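Project standup — Tuesday

K.O.: blocked on the structure for the chain from last sprint. Re-posting the sequence here as requested.
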Amino acid sequence: MTQTPQSKKEIFWAFTWLALQGFGGVLPVAERELVDKKRWYTRESFLEEWAVAQVLPGPNVINLAIIFGARHFGWQGALTASAGMLIFPMLALIVIAMSYHHWGDQPAVAGAIRGMGAVAAGLIAGTSLKLASALKKHPSRYVPSICIAAICFIAVAWMRIPLVHVLLSLGSLSIYMTYRQVRSS
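H.V.: unblocked you, prediction finished:
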């Protein structure tokens, strides 16, 4: 059962907290905070809105914040959620950038930054596997959905096909398959 935010202030601080935890990628944090802790989304509805946010231009987590905020408090909610995603992380980034400018040539700093890339990749892979369970309830069924996800991964990661081409082709196929399944039910 999902809950709803009670105020724009609650949205602002929730998205601020989400953004401040999102080192190397915010998907794992967004899913944990918005689905598991706040219960503002079911896993399935989060996956659906994340998919929409992913294909829109701009940073996907900002898109998700705008969609979520607008749904609950209109344009003011969209601005509030966006501000939560941007204000404090921007200030933190300015401090980090200034520190990196000063100490970035130190081997320990360079090694730490390289190590964070592996952690970010692991977080994204782990969350992707966790979210895949939501596909079991998808109208197109689990196996076809996993096949489309695998084809997408292969096309983008290994074959280096531009993401826009993959989204247009596989996205169209996925929409068509879902439409046919929903229509026949």
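K.O.: great, moving the ticket to review. DSSP finds seven helices and no strands in the chain. The mean pLDDT is 87.
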